[in-house]
C-alpha cells in the first residue's frame, strides 16, 4: 500500500493532496540578506538571464522557471547572494523569529539552510550554535556558511540528545530550532523515490530520536524562550506524538504558528491515540495547499 494512503482520514481534499505529491516541486531560492538586498539579488539574477517569480508571502523567496539553471548553478548562488532552499523549509526559522544578538541553538543543522537563514534574520549578530552529529554533513554546512558570509554561526558536532552547553560559557539558549531527521514523506515532490524502503519500523525508530532531541532543546532553553519543532513528514508518530510527549514531560506550552501560508491544524487524535488539544496550534503544511513540499511546524514556549 502507498504509505500516503494512511493520511486519507486526516488530509482535507485527499485526491488533490495525492495529485500534488506526484507533481515536481517548483525550485526556489532564498535571498541571503547578509550579502544582498532582495532588489540586488533580483538584478543579478535578471542580468544572468535567470527567469524567476517572487513569492508574495515571503519577499525573500523566488521560484525559478522550470527551464534554465538550477538554484545552485547561478552566479548569484556562487557569490552567496542566494541559497537554494525549498520554499516550505524557510518556514521554521520564520516561526522561531530570532532577534539580533540572541543565543540560538540549531540542534540538527546540517547542511545549514535554516542555520544560515537564522543568521540572516539576526543580522548576522549574536550566536547560533549550528550542531549536527554527522561530520560529513557539517563540512557542507561550513562551506555554505562561508559562502553566505554567516559569521554568527559556531559549529559543533554532538549528539543533540545529550548536548552539553558548557563549551560556550552560557547555560541556556534564548531559542532553539529542532529540525529533526525524519521519514521525509513531505519531500516526495523533490525526490520521487523517497518512499522506497519506507517502513513503520523506521518511523518508530526515528521518532525515538526526535523525542529525545526535542526534550533536550526544551531543557536547554531559558524560561520564556521559544523552541520550534519541525519535520518534513506527514506521520503523526513523528509530529504530534513527539510534541505531545514534550508537553507532558517538560515545562512548556504550544503557541499558535503564525505564517501567511495556508495550513491545516495539527491533529489531536490518531489511530486510537489522543494528544493534547493544544496541538491544534501546530501547522501541517500540505503540498496541495500552496504548491510546496510538506512540512510540520510546532512552536513551544518554555516555562510559565
Ligand atoms: C532534516 S536534516 C536537517 C536539515 C537542516 N536543518 C537544514 O535546514 O539544512 C536532519 C539532520 O539531523 C542530523 N541528526 C540526526 N540525528 C542527530 C542527533 N542525534 N544529533 C544531532 N544531529 C542529528 C542529521 O545528520 C541531519 O543532518
Q: Care to describe what's here?
A:
With 304 residues, the protein is of the alpha/beta class. It has 2 domains: 3-22 and 87-302, Vaccinia Virus protein VP39 (Rossmann fold); 26-85, Sun protein, domain 3 (Alpha-Beta Plaits, 2-Layer Sandwich). It has helices at 14-22, 38-47, 75-78, 91-96, 113-121, 135-148, 200-219, 240-249, 287-290; strands at residues 28-31, 52-54, 61-64, 82-84, 103-106, 127-131, 153-156, 173-179, 221-231, 252-255, 264-265, 269-270, 273-274, 283-285, 295-302. The strands form 3 sheets. Strands 5, 6, 7, 8, 9, 10, 11, 14 and 15 form a 9-stranded mixed sheet that branches. Strands 2-3-1-4 form a 4-stranded antiparallel sheet. Strands 12-13 form a two-stranded antiparallel ribbon. Bound molecules: S-adenosylmethionine. S-adenosylmethionine is lined by residues 108-114, 131-134, 137, 159-161, 179-181, 209.
CATH topology-level fold name of the largest domain: Rossmann fold
Determine the strand fraction and express it as a percent band: 15-25%
Oligomeric assembly: single chain
Number of H- or I-type helical stretches: 9
Total domain count: 2
Ligands and ions found: S-adenosylmethionine
Measured between the Cα atoms of the first and last residue, the distance is 44 Å
Mean pLDDT: 96
**Relative helix content:** 25-40%
> Any idea of the CATH class of the largest domain?
Alpha Beta
Order of helices and strands: HEHEEHEHEHEHEEHEHEEEEEHE
> Overall 3D geometry?
globular
Q: What is the radius of gyration?
A: 19 Å
- Structural class comes to alpha/beta
Number of strands: 15
CATH architecture field of the largest domain: 3-Layer(aba) Sandwich
**CATH superfamily label of the largest domain:** Vaccinia Virus protein VP39
Sheet of most strands: 9 strands, mixed
Keywords: Methyltransferase, RNA-binding, S-adenosyl-L-methionine, Transferase
Binding site for S-adenosyl-L-methionine: 108-114, 132, 159, 179
Domain SAM-dependent MTase RsmB/NOP-type: 17-303
GO molecular function: methyltransferase activity; RNA binding
